[in-house]
Amino acid sequence: MAEVNTESKGGKKGKKKGAKKVSTRIDFTPMVDLGFLLITFFMLTTTMIKPQTMEIAMPSKDKVTEEEQTKVKASRAITIILGKDNKVFYYEGTRENDVDPIVEKTDFSAKGLRKFLIEKNYDVMIKVEDLNKEKLQKQIPDEEFEKRKNELMADKKAPIVIIKATDEASYKNLIDVLDEMAICNIGRYAIVDITDYDRELIANLNI
Amino acid sequence: MAKVKLPRKSTAIDMTAMCDVAFLLLTFFMLTSNFTQKEPVIVNTPSSISEIKIPETNIMTVLVEKSGKVFFGIDGQDKRIELLKKMGDAYSIQFSDNELKEFSLINRFGVPIEQMQAFLSLKSLDRDRQENAIGIPCDSTNNQFKNWVRFARIVNPQIRIAIKADGITPYPIIKNVMNTLQDLDENRYNLITSLEQNPEKLIY
Questions:
Q1: Which residues of A fall within a CB distance of 8 Å from B45?
Q2: What is the mean pLDDT of chain A?
Q3: For A69-96, how does the pLDDT look when each residue is reduced to its tens digit (9 = 90+)?
């Protein structure tokens, strides 16, 4: 390929006068070495995978007042409290008629918080599952899929999750909870500052 | 008995084809690559199932280390120069052209504005040293981070905020960063995570 054979075979017979013809065959080995060295360099210094992100929208500060936060219908509200050492507490509703809600303790495993949220959000989960199947079969465009999914998730009966993190919680806990929201197709959730009442509930539970 | 004489074969291999392959791969890697950006501290992001990719341009990265140090960086060299000029004006520090140029080459930094000039006069290798990773002041008495974000927004109105924080960062630190952003009416931002497998078979 890259060699040009100028020497005719059996050149002994018809030897011509003139300059001696030099073979143009080049040894490519060092060039290959160089090529692979550069490949190695580029492979090691590059990032093929772009980092993933989660989009999050927080309420703006001035608009959210205490009253608005409590406007959430008690029957639909689930409060998740992130405690220390990856512990999670949750309760449904709020304090009504001087009766404290029952606080449950769980963890981030599939059988802990996720199971509970899926049970609570079962109707929406099934609908989204159907939509997923439909997408696979009928090839719905992504935009329409997202739109329909959001419509399903905005269901009037779906639970509203309030996330409260104690000071002992870590950033990973927060991401994990937000992740659970995505996995369990919960459309409405908010990150809210913890109140003394919630701290008390957890403290009572630990005794 | 006559021996069968095997013709001696040359052991030289034609390297041309191999060379072709090597350079083809090289071209591929050169064209598809974007270099790993050097970061002043190691941050292990938690994983999530989210598959949204982060945009490459118009992005402001807030790096939060596990001990609570905050680092900051925006993209675009001309934007960086403008940003530092604005910051200098706000803290009445005059940056020279050379310092502005040096600053435009830095991806992420984590020094208080008072020490910025000293930081910029260092060689780029010395800048990466551990003692220079101080973090930007982010508390209520001296919230320089807030000003960085505010001016970055003025310099580039389309900029998006990405927070990259270590998994074991205590929540109050994150809350402080988020509250600062909330004060500035920056209510939409991205949290950088690594990819995790989406669990299947959720409904039993």
A1: 51
A2: 76
A3: 556 666 778 888 888 788 888 888 776 6
Q: How far apart are the first and last CA of chain A?
A: 83
User: Which of B26, B34, B189, B197 to mutate to probe the A interface, most A CBs <10 Å?
Assistant: B26
Q: Please determine, for residue A11, whether its predicted confidence score (pLDDT) is greater than 50.
A: no
8 Å CB contact of A178 and B191:
yes
Give residue-wise pLDDT tens across range A152-186: 777 777 788 888 888 888 888 888 888 888 888 88
CB contact, 8 Å: A92 with chain B? no
pTM above 0.95, yes or no: no
CB contact under 8 A, B29 and A182: no
A146 close to B (CB below 8 A): no
CB contacts under 8 A, A 167-186 vs B, are 167-176, 178-179, 182-184
The CA distance from A20 to the nearest CA of chain B, in Å, is 23
On chain B, the residues whose CB falls within 8 A of the CB of A110 are: 199
Q: What's the whole-number mean pLDDT along residues A34-38?
A: 90
ipTM: 0.75
